[in-house]
Amino acid sequence: MPAADDEVAVLIVGGGPVGLTARALLERWGVRTLLVERHPELSPFPRSRLVNVRSMEIFRRLGVAAEIAAGAFAPEYGRVRFRDTLYDRDFATAAMIGINAPVPQSPVTGVVTSQDRLEPTLLAAADAPVRFGVELTALVEDAEGVEAVLLDHRSGARTRVRARHVLGADGANSTVRQALGIGTTGPGALGKITTVVFDADLGPWRDRRPAGVYFTRHGSFLPLYPEGGWAWLTPTPADAEGADWPALVSRALGADGEVRAEVSRVQHWVVNAFVAERLRRGRILLAGDAAHALPPAGGLGMNAGVADAHNLCWKLAGVLRGWAGPGLLDTYEPERLPVAHRTLHQAVVNTRLMFQALEDREARPAGETAPDGTELPWSEQYFAQLGLVLGVVYDSGAVLADGSARPEATGTDPGTEYVPTARPGHRMPHLWLGRDRSTLDALGEWFTLLTPDPAAWERQRTGPWPVRVEPLPAAYDALCGLGPRGALLIRPDGHVGARWPDPPPGDSTLHRGLTELTHAPPR
Length: 523
Known about the structure:
Number of helices: 14
Structural class: alpha+beta
């Protein structure tokens, strides 16, 4: 077989937020990547709208959270409103928890922004090569790696790239997933939607009753950027190609169609709801919509994909850099596949709640409000999803069993409630270590050992693993389930990998724990 035209450690297929996040994360680990995207440029459409607190925590670690927030809407836009037309009063409304105001469980606040504004920031967050207009056409795996055939749509040239691993982040119609023959489970295609991007003189009105989404009887309206621009989402009409979109938008706006809409772009797309049967086959892995396509209600899809990348990239780095065994990659699917199923369930619930609000309105005479004036009973559920966002728990071979018998506050409703806990498998709780410095800021491209007694643990052998020891204020001992000389081992993705409530019995405790957690061969 002739030599490949290029060789990289990881080939990333797909240049959306998930692929771009993976590229930035792997670069920080020193892993050489190539990202290919079949479209000629970043998406010009707004698409995903909500960046939740967990994604913002990840972006904070990448150093781009402040830039993302600077281009996003003010917190008061972290709300959805239901009304007959855009100009009518609300008959229901719901706050986006963690978006409309800070929450004590995180050092950051999520934002409402548009994907076409987010993606350039993520693209600039790394220097690794990106090839636009290049499509994956074939994959062949052998014992040493994967060979990919790429088609450049500009030149027509085909090139062969050799990679140790391939990450498929190429959307719901994933070429990578189809090439692997991996099926999906779930409802599948739920319907066809058209997004119409337009401009109209709605700014002063929008600022009086701000929201990230306005659901109406005539479709959904979304302000795109703080400085202006709108999108209208509506079921795709039968004669979509011949539709007079400016006229349709003007009529849907209400006010007797007097508002003139200047349409700039129209996109037709399918609402999908499925989860891949597998997230990995050999050296090839799936993330984002390639792994789980979710209805947009509740803003869960893109954020789940960002969390996929965060979970996977440190594992890829460990295997590629030699301090982890291949078995560490076996933990990706058992950790993220259950999350995908729970997230799909919540997205379907959100969709039903959304339609319930509209159906309840249709059942009431015109002008009659909901029994409590503006809020419907479901409003506390729709975006109150911190349990799903921050309360994810992993149970795999990358989490050591907890031997602690110490009492602690715990308990997480997988949809709504979130109670911080430092039990192994959970996200390390946000706790202030000092002024403007969170426990989450102590994490990075290394394992973090948090302990009230750093001196007792700095004598531990660490071997080849990157480890940093951080002092934990004694005030947090009880919350973290630790004694005065215990320790927490935090994985690079921020989840607790191990907990030792008491002093280490010998100088190899940490070494043994890291060996087991990373599936490394004995050293």
